[in-house]
Amino acid sequence: MLIARNPDPQSRLQYLLRIPIDEGLVFRTSDTWPRTKALFCYPVPTEHWPEHPEIIERTPVRSCVRRGAAIDLILDRGRENRSQIVFTTARGRDAVFWQSPRTRKQARPNVRTPTARAAGLADLTIVIDTHERYPYRFIGQQVHTTSGALPCGDYALRTGDRLLASVERKSLTDLVSSLTSGKLRFALAELAALPRAAVVIEDRYSNVFKLERVRPAIVADGLAELQIRYPTVPIVFCENRQLAEEWTYRYLAAAQQWCDTNNDADYRATSSTPPQEPTIMADTTGSAPSSAEVRAWARTAGLDVPARGRLHPRIWDAWRTAHPE
């Protein structure tokens, strides 16, 4: 499979997709893979493939077979390897869409999300982490979004230099990867330092038990252990991306409404001494603690620590003094 830059500057479809079937089919499309939605593809003659293309991606193909009105395309790589190019009609016209199993499931969640304002708020400002490649847009809701570097989570409410609430977004693949590598535990340690925080999963919990590359019991036990360790950070499965976006909007709106009307003591805390911070115990195995654990402990102890980056040696010295064992 070849993906090249579309040399036509006037086209809104900035990529050319070429697949090895019928002497090569060429399509114009808007992205390099259908990650968050099915991609519209405009078929063009093979002569439109540039003589000297600017190749963006070149991936070996395991299988490329036409089955009825669809072409099953399987790439020779571990992730994002299965997709379909579907020939259909839209509004009475012929159309071609490139979809993956994830976007096909999300395309028809069989539910219509409400348009009523969450918590009755006329407007809500949500900060989106700059590392989010495909962020939620909150279309149809009374939401204003800004981009900024968040110390934890992907979507948050911010007042000055303080975070009121934060939501970490995960696909099932990302969840499994971060859980098995140990990164998710450190992420939850930082989320637990906030007054309100949650993790939202763009998938069903039942799909955990359909995993093939990792034992489902390992993932299920890991999630259960994290919920016991960090009970203030719920892990919510929302079936698909659309419902996860809706849940994130309403969760943050509820947090904003609670802050405005209840004058919650959690929200009056300063960012350097966040409430409900779990005490980090010494590692009895003798291995050094992670930066996230020491950072969380330092905040509990009232020490000034940066949200990101390397910790100052004096912070490590203070942790060792407090944990001589």
Explain this structure to me?
It is built from 8 helices and 15 strands. The chain has 325 residues and is α+β, with helices and mostly antiparallel strands. It starts with a strand and ends with a helix.
Major sheet size, sense and barrel closure? 9 strands, antiparallel
Strand content: 25-35%
Strand and helix order:
EEEEEEEEEHEEEEHHEHEHHHH
Question: What is the number of E strands?
Answer: 15
Query: What does the average pLDDT come to?
Result: 83
**How many whole angstroms does the radius of gyration measure?**
23 Å
The low-confidence parts are 268-286
Question: What is the SS-derived class?
Answer: alpha+beta
Helix content percent band: 25-40%
Approximate shape: globular
Number of helices: 8
Distance between the termini: 57 Å
